[in-house]
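Board notes (copied after class):
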Amino acid sequence: MRTVPDDFWMTALTGVVDKAKGEGLAAITVTSPCFGAGGSGTAAPSSFRRTAGDEQAERVARAHSSRLYDALQVRHAARGEGEGLATYQEGEERYAHHSWSTEPLTEDVMARVLTRARAHFQGLGWTLPRTPAEAGPPVLLAGNTADGSVARLAPTADGVLHVAMTTPAAPGETALRTTGPASV
C-alpha cells in the first residue's frame, strides 16, 4: 500500500514455515519519507551506522540472489519501487535485503521457474517448508541454515514473480549469525 500525497509505504507478507507445528513468517514493513534518501525505500535514520557485518550480509544476500537468478533462467523486469539492495534494522537485529521481479510469465513458464527454484534450493541444502495450496502458484519459501538467509518467491496474478532474499547481519562483525530472520 502507498499513500501518494506523502509517500508512506506499507508492505505485509506472510508465509507458512511448518503447518504441523503452527510456525510461520510474518513481516510488516513501513517506509516513511521522514527517513532515507530520496524515496529509495531504505529507512536509514541518522543513528543507523553501517558495519562490516552489514556489508558482509549484503554481499551474501546479493550472491544468493544472483545464483537464484541464474537458476531461474528468466529475464528480470526493470527495477520497481522498493526493489534493490537495502539494509534494515529491526530492534537489535539487522538484515540485508535484496529484491527484484521477473517480467510477466505465462502459467506454464511460472510452473517451470518455480520447479527450477525448488531444485536450486534443494541442491544447495536449503530447507523448503511446505506451503498450503491455494488458488494459483503458492509462495515458495527457502531457508539457509548455514547463514540464516531466507528466500521468498511470490507469484502474482499478472504473472510476475517477486523475489526477495534476506540475510541477517552481525552488528560490527563480518561473521553472520546462524539463526534465521523473523521476516522476509
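Comment from the instructor: Residues 35-48, 171-184 have pLDDT under 50 and may be disordered. Residues 50-169 form one domain.
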